[in-house]
Design a protein that fits this description.
Blueprint lengths: L2 E2 L7 H13 L2 H13 L7 H12 L3 H16 L6 H16 L8 H11 L1 H17 L4 H26 L4 H18 L15 H28 L4 H16 L1 H19 L5 E2 L12 H10 L4 H6 L11 H5 L2 H22 L1 H7 L4 H33 L3 H20 L5 H28 L4 H8 L2 H28 L7 H23 L1 H5 L13 H14 L1
Antiparallel strand pairs: 1-2
Helix pairs in contact: 2-7, 2-8, 3-4, 4-6, 4-7, 4-22, 5-6, 5-7, 5-9, 7-8, 8-9, 8-10, 8-11, 8-18, 8-20, 10-11, 10-12, 10-18, 12-25, 16-20, 16-22, 16-23, 17-18, 18-20, 19-20, 19-23, 20-21, 22-23
């Protein structure tokens, strides 16, 4: 449905209202809403903060905390879009009630369910915001996924500043904030984020680079603020100032998007003789079923469903069916590489604080390691998005090869922990945080490029299941028990080196994942040599203007 409003018949005030509606219904505001939702979707990254509160209050041992961490990772990756907000609130609200003693102490299996439900918020954001944004702006998917996942990486630090300003240094109140804030953001913008017709936006790359600069400034501010809060005692007023500045930077991309929408608005008026047109609704294109054609094809085709799934798959970049993609060799290789890479990285991150304590670092230094992990996790996300996109467009550098290089870099960070020397843990924190952050945007982007966007939401959720599976195998079943046995022996002997054998195992597993990804590089080499965005470049540069013009003609005829 399109409404057309003549500028000559409206007042300036009405024109302002029409422009506001134009902005709110545009794809840039939809992307801004995605930024906000993703910035509130990283509650899982605060698990290390409130898990100690759960452990102390409910009397859980470390093995139970590790088990809860697994269900936290599981909840991140197996969510349901339509009930994401409700599940987020229910899960974390029940955890908060348990911690403050408002309900009886839950059993371990109940806590596992609570944290799995609560962690669903990140999957809700991925499915609702990230997938929709990729479909709306497919030519810049690398940049966009890097930014969106970057804001998710910063969400833990952002929510920390908010809870310090609102509740003070109270870990129990942090759980309450995690319960209501992501759910509120999702409900506020649930109708804003929607799929639109694929169009080429003017100055698209410039807009993303402006957002990149804003996000880097926000990340650096959060890093400096976090380090200062650990070094000196902040007053409540100082916490309020820090939270205010954080929110101001978080909302800054909206100014960039309004500027772009204003330019589009003025161009629409200029191209249509001063007529300001507002596109009220731009629904996604729907496929019109053609039953007669399908019936003919079903009768004349000699290929069975089995052969179509295994032997008659589309070319890379075309739309695969769900079974065609999941049962393909490329997806299997990608799953193995992700299981090894992300599984090892998650295990290393979960054990970083324990390793710092084993090396004799004070608690303040260990917290600085975790801060370095967080900030470089962000830089890894935006690096893998923007740099891989730039290398792909300019030099046809395969994104799969970028994944191989990131996994090899992760091996170096793990080996620095396995064979420690003075200062090695600082360097390892940077490398592991960077490589960990870089892997997820690459996974999401590669899936969208190789298997198409038709079933993207299902396929990327299936692909990232390798992350919690790898974490469970490597953290719960392999390195956790191995570390505990070695740590006990080391404490008795007052030696430390044998406690780091698990990280040698993780380095070997990650190297195996890197070698597996090289097979995918070879298989997709020809695909990445071509123009993978060719089908999206056939869209006009100013579709909104063209659409509005055609509707003006229809209304006057």
């Amino acid at each position: 449905m399109v409404e057309t409003q003549g500028a000559g018949s409206t007042t300036k005030g009405d024109g302002g209202v029409q422009f506001v509606l134009h902005v709110l219904r545009g794809r840039w505001f939809s992307l801004f809403a995605s930024f906000l939702i993703m910035s509130g979707a990283g509650a899982t990254y605060l698990f290390g903060v409130y898990s100690q509160e759960i452990k102390n209050t409910l009397g859980y041992d470390q093995i139970t905390i590790v088990l809860l961490g697994f269900f936290k990772d599981l909840g991140v990756n197996v969510g349901v879009l339509s009930v994401g907000a409700a599940m987020n609130f229910t899960g974390y609200f029940m955890i908060w009630l348990s911690v403050i003693g408002k309900i009886s102490k839950p059993k371990v299996w109940q806590m596992c369910i609570y944290i799995c439900l609560g962690a669903n918020s990140q999957n809700f954001a991925n499915t609702g915001a990230l997938v929709t944004s990729v479909r709306n702006l497919p030519e810049s998917r690398g940049n966009m996924i890097g930014l969106l996942k970057g804001f998710t990486g910063l969400s833990g630090a952002i929510m920390t500043q908010l809870y310090l300003a609102v509740y003070g240094n109270d870990a129990q109140s942090l759980i309450l904030l995690i319960a209501w804030m992501p759910a509120a953001l999702s409900l506020i913008f649930v109708y804003t984020i929607r799929q639109m017709k694929v169009v080429r936006q003017p100055n698209q790359q410039t807009v993303f680079f402006h957002c990149l600069l804003i996000s880097i400034v926000l990340a650096l501010f959060l890093m400096v603020t976090t380090l200062l809060e650990k070094a000196i005692s902040f007053s409540h007023a100082a916490y309020v100032v820090a939270a205010t500045v954080s929110c101001a930077l978080l909302f800054s991309p909206l100014l960039v998007f309004i500027r772009e929408e204003l330019a589009i608005w003025r161009q629409m008026k200029q191209n249509n003789g001063g007529v300001a047109n507002t596109i009220v609704e731009n629904p996604p294109p729907t496929e019109i079923p053609q039953p007669q054609k399908d019936q003919v094809n079903s009768k004349t085709s000699t290929s069975s469903c089995f052969s179509k799934i295994f032997f008659e798959k589309p070319a890379s970049g075309e739309d695969y069916s769900i079974l065609q993609a999941l049962l393909s060799t490329d997806m299997l290789i990608l799953f193995v590489a992700t299981l090894c890479g992300l599984g090892s990285s998650l295990t290393a991150v979960d054990n970083m604080a324990r390793i710092g304590g084993s090396l004799g670092y004070p608690k303040t230094t260990v917290k600085s390691f975790l801060s370095l992990l967080s900030i470089w996790n962000f830089f890894g996300r935006i690096f893998s998005g923007f740099v891989s996109e730039s290398l792909l467009v300019r030099y046809k550098f395969p994104r799969t090869l970028m994944m191989t290089l990131i996994l090899l870099l992760s091996c170096i960070g793990l080996l620095l922990i396995a064979f420690p020397f003075p200062g090695s843990l600082h360097v390892a924190s940077i490398i592991i945080g960077f490589s960990f952050g870089a892997q997820m945007p690459l996974l999401f982007t590669i899936i969208s490029e190789l298997f198409g966007l038709k079933y993207y939401s299902t396929l990327f959720n299936c692909g990232q299941l390798a992350s919690p599976l790898g974490s469970y195998i490597l953290n719960v079943k392999v390195t956790g028990p191995l570390y505990d046995r070695k740590a006990l022996k080391d404490l008795k002997k007052k030696g430390l080196t044998r406690a780091f054998l698990p990280f040698i195992v993780l380095a070997c597993v990650t190297f195996f994942g890197a070698m597996a990804s090289l097979i995918l590089v070879a298989r997709t080499r020809q695909f990445y040599k071509g123009d993978i965005y060719k089908k999206f470049k056939q869209q006009p540069n100013t579709p909104d203007t063209k659409m509005a013009s055609s509707n003006t003609t229809n209304n006057t005829s």
